[in-house]
Each structure stands twice: as structure tokens, then as C-alpha cells.
């Protein structure tokens, strides 16, 4: 029965009028894991939570009873024009008991029941939801006879264009990321070398794992976490562009350091990559690095509002191919090759739409992207350089300040 209702909704959603009487918007789940919900609740709550915008424009936040006062205190968000923006009136599930029976003792079920009861009480006949809505809410809302429309742009388009406060949070996150990156690259570049060519620091063998642990401590001291880890990779592992790296680090070899921590005070992310070589790189690594830096500049030159992510990526590929490198996506190669797109949006998630890649859509003023071309091969290792770039009316603004070279001594 529920499945049929959803099928009928999907079939008729294109004909629906989103401004018609009885139409509401719903986000629900865990705000500490769902950035779309977090932006509307105001706190990263770990208990089931829901946010509803009613047809009248009034907003409702449903949270656990123990969290009501704290959520109310977070109820005002400062807008770019310094005007107060109400995130919504705060309720708990007990404020919306189901019409038949009582609330479940299970918190998630109770919250889903309360959402359905609230919508019924307000006379809502139709709801639009984003890609993150958990099935338990879909089921209870549909069981209440309320149609559900899936909106693939909901929770996407509003997060692509950053507010002034979001840009400030991203700048700060990247600033701290660069502070840690500088310490790591210098530690690698100034290490001693043992008889096997491996790097030694204070009598300890420097490994990918040890450097990642060092980075985690540096970030923790600054109120950041590496919830998604980090990459410290040398050959042969760096032939796979997403390999985290393992084992001892060696002199004369390019080492990719990719850091993407989260600022726990704002929950916005930094993302920076540099390539460091201890000692003297070979001629091919120098050539790879020059091609990557030139391709990065070519891609960034395309980053104006109204141009496309596809054009940014194609500019990067043209530059790399002109330098003699080929696209071999999905295939690890001995010779250096192009293996991935140019970059991605960034914000509350490290990877956000849209991608700077083939078929990527129009760039919007106020979007923040990473630009991170790279070349990878088993023989010489990998080279990647990554900055964050803000799209402005006057073109790209590079957020990073660190140098891009291979020598960090």
C-alpha cells in the first residue's frame, strides 16, 4: 500500500504545484550526521530530529524533550544582512501524539509518528523531501495519507551558494589546515635518512601512519578532527590517487599529503593537498609537478559565474595532455596518468555537489570548490596540488596561501 502511494506520488509530482495549499517541506534524521538537517536545527544533535516548513511559512523543529531548551537557545541564526532568521519553533514528540494509539518508546519511531501527526494536524496533504530523508519517516508520513515528492535539488542548491558566515568558516578551516600542512611538509623535508634511504625523525622511522597520527594530534589541539582520515602516500601506493599510504617514507620520492579536517566549532571543512620531496626529485617528477601546477592555473582561470564545471575540467585536461599525459581513469598505470576529475564543492561535507568534471553544470557566484589536478604512476609516484577557490563576480579567489613547490626545507 505504501509502495503504491509512493509510486503514484512520483508519477504525479511533476504536475504538482509546490505553492498549493497543504504543501510542506520536511527534513528529518540525525542532525549530527545530516548537514541539511543541521543547518535547519542549529545544533548537531545525535537524537532523532525533524524540521518542517508549513504551507504558511511557519517552521517547526521537533527534538527530544531533553534538548528543547538548548535548541531554543540556538533558534536565531545571524543572516548576511545581520537580520535575525528564525529557524523554527521548538517542540518535542509528545506535543504531537498520534491520533490512534500512543507514541512508541523507540525515539526514532516516536519522532516519525510525531512528524506524521503534526502534518495531519496542520492539514498538510503533500510533502516534499530531499535525498536524505530516512525510510522510517517516509513510511509514517505516507501511512498517514500524505503524499511525498522527492526534490533532487532540495538541500543541494541552497548549500552550493555560501553565505558570508559560511565563507568565513571555510576560510578559517583552510587556514588551520594550512598551518598543519606546513608543519607536516617541513617535518618530512628536514628528516634524516638511514642506510636504506628511509626517513628518520628523532630516531623514529617516519611512516605514512606516523605522519597521519602527527596530523591528528595537531588538528585536535586546534579543535579540529580528521573524521575521514588523511592521505600521506608515496610510490607505489600513490599510483592509486585515493590510497591513504602505508609504510616507511623515503628520500627522493614525491609524497602526497592530503588533509581534509573538520572544524568542530563550525562543522565546516578544510581541504588542502601538497606534494613534498625529501632531497632531490628526479626530472620526471619535476616535469609532472610543473604540468599539474600549470593545469591547476588553467582550470582556475575558467571559474567565473555562468561558466561550467565541465569547462574547468576540460581546461585542466587540455593542459595535462599538452604536457604529454593521458587520461586513464579507473586504471592504475606504471607511467604517470590522469585518473580523476578536477575538484568538488566543499562546505559542511568535504565532498559536495557539484563536481568539476565532465558534464558539470553552471558555476554560481558564492560557490566554494577544491581544485586538485594530479598525475599518478607506479614508477615515479604521484603529484597532486589542491587549493580551495571561491567563485566571485570578478572571477576565482584562491583561499590558500601556502606555496605549491616540492621543496619544503
Automatic annotation (TrEMBL):
<comment type="similarity">
    <text>Belongs to the peptidase M24B family.</text>
</comment>
<dbReference type="InterPro" id="IPR036005">
    <property type="entry name" value="Creatinase/aminopeptidase-like"/>
</dbReference>
<keyword id="KW-0645">Protease</keyword>
<dbReference type="Pfam" id="PF00557">
    <property type="entry name" value="Peptidase_M24"/>
</dbReference>
<feature type="domain" description="Peptidase M24">
    <location>
        <begin position="169"/>
        <end position="393"/>
    </location>
</feature>
<dbReference type="InterPro" id="IPR050659">
    <property type="entry name" value="Peptidase_M24B"/>
</dbReference>
<keyword id="KW-0482">Metalloprotease</keyword>
<dbReference type="InterPro" id="IPR001131">
    <property type="entry name" value="Peptidase_M24B_aminopep-P_CS"/>
</dbReference>
<dbReference type="InterPro" id="IPR000994">
    <property type="entry name" value="Pept_M24"/>
</dbReference>
<protein>
    <submittedName>
        <fullName>M24 family metallopeptidase</fullName>
    </submittedName>
</protein>
<keyword id="KW-0479">Metal-binding</keyword>
<feature type="region of interest" description="Disordered">
    <location>
        <begin position="1"/>
        <end position="20"/>
    </location>
</feature>
<feature type="compositionally biased region" description="Low complexity">
    <location>
        <begin position="9"/>
        <end position="20"/>
    </location>
</feature>
<keyword id="KW-0378">Hydrolase</keyword>
Amino acid at each position: 500500500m505504501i509502495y503504491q502511494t509512493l509510486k503514484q506520488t512520483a508519477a504525479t509530482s511533476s504536475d504538482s504545484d509546490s505553492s498549493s495549499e497543504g504543501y510542506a517541506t520536511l527534513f528529518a534524521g540525525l542532525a549530527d550526521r545530516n548537514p541539511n538537517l543541521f543547518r535547519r536545527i542549529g545544533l548537531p544533535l545525535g537524537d532523532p530530529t525533524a524540521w518542517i516548513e508549513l504551507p504558511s511559512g511557519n517552521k517547526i523543529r521537533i527534538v527530544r524533550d531533553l534538548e528543547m531548551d538548548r535548541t531554543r537557545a540556538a533558534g536565531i541564526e545571524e543572516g548576511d544582512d545581520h537580520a535575525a532568521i528564525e529557524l523554527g519553533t521548538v517542540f518535542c514528540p509528545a506535543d504531537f501524539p498520534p491520533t490512534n494509539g500512543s507514541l512508541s518508546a523507540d525515539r526514532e519511531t516516536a519522532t516519525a509518528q510525531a512528524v506524521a501527526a503534526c502534518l495531519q494536524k496542520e492539514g498538510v496533504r503533500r510533502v516534499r523531501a530531499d535525498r536524505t530523508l530516512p525510510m522510517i519517516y517516509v513510511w509514517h508520513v505516507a501511512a498517514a495519507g500524505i503524499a511525498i515528492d522527492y526534490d533532487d535539488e532540495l538541500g543541494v542548491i541552497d548549500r552550493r551558494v555560501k553565505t558570508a558566515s559560511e565563507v568565513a568558516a571555510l576560510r578559517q578551516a583552510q587556514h588551520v589546515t594550512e598551518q598543519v600542512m606546513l608543519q607536516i611538509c617541513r617535518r618530512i623535508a628536514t628528516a634524516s635518512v638511514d642506510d636504506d634511504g628511509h626517513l628518520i625523525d628523532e630516531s623514529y622511522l617516519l611512516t605514512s601512519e606516523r605522519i597521519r597520527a602527527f596530523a591528528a594530534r595537531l588538528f585536535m589541539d586546534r579543535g579540529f578532527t580528521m573524521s575521514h582520515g588523511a592521505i600521506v602516500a608515496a610510490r607505489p601506493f600513490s599510483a592509486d590517487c585515493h590510497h591513504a599510504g602505508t609504510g616507511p617514507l623515503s628520500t627522493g620520492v614525491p609524497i602526497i599529503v592530503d588533509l581534509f579536517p573538520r572544524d568542530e566549532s563550525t562543522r565546516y571543512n578544510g581541504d588542502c593537498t601538497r606534494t613534498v620531496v625529501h632531497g632531490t626529485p628526479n626530472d620526471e617528477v619535476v616535469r609532472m609537478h610543473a604540468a599539474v601546477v600549470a593545469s591547476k592555473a588553467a582550470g582556475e582561470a575558467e571559474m567565473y559565474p555562468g561558466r561550467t564545471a565541465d569547462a574547468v575540467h576540460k581546461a585542466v585536461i587540455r593542459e595535462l595532455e599538452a604536457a604529454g599525459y593521458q587520461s586513464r581513469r579507473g586504471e592504475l598505470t606504471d607511467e604517470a596518468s590522469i585518473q580523476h576529475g578536477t575538484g568538488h564543492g566543499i562546505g559542511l561535507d568535504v565532498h559536495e555537489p557539484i563536481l568539476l568534471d565532465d558534464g558539470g553544470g553552471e558555476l554560481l557566484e558564492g560557490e566554494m570548490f577544491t581544485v586538485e589536478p594530479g598525475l599518478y604512476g607506479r614508477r615515479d609516484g604521484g603529484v597532486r596540488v589542491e587549493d580551495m577557490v571561491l567563485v566571485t563576480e570578478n572571477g576565482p579567489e584562491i583561499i590558500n596561501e601556502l606555496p605549491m613547490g616540492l621543496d619544503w626545507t
